TrEMBL record:
<dbReference type="GO" id="GO:0008017">
    <property type="term" value="F:microtubule binding"/>
</dbReference>
<dbReference type="GO" id="GO:0005881">
    <property type="term" value="C:cytoplasmic microtubule"/>
</dbReference>
<dbReference type="GO" id="GO:0000226">
    <property type="term" value="P:microtubule cytoskeleton organization"/>
</dbReference>
<dbReference type="InterPro" id="IPR011989">
    <property type="entry name" value="ARM-like"/>
</dbReference>
<dbReference type="InterPro" id="IPR016024">
    <property type="entry name" value="ARM-type_fold"/>
</dbReference>
<dbReference type="GO" id="GO:0005929">
    <property type="term" value="C:cilium"/>
</dbReference>
<protein>
    <submittedName>
        <fullName>TGRM2 protein</fullName>
    </submittedName>
</protein>
Amino acid sequence: GCRIMLQKMGESNEFMQKAADRSLGIMVASVTAARAMTALMASGVQHRSVPVRRCASEHLMTTGKQMGAKKLLSAAPDSTELLVRTLVKLAQDCHQDTRCYGQQMLTVLMSHQKFDRYLKQSVPSRDL
């Protein structure tokens, strides 16, 4: 379902984009935060379409803020590294809103004492 709704965000029809965005918001609120984040990272934040990345990153940020830094960084090491790499990539996105959402999520994670270690482990030095 997440992938299909995100694909609708890539359409030029504004009505369909708004409906897909609302549906994604409902989906994110209806499943566990971890499941929502997994679906958004798998289907949206790597997408070539700017509206899809923006929408996915906005819902990812909302979910991440609800979870908080401690819970986000307490997942399995592979999941944590993927999350940190994804957020650094979003924080450098070509679209202003997507960059803003990525930066807000990184700000949430910065409050955790182990964030620097995860950042150095997960992200190539050129992106730091």
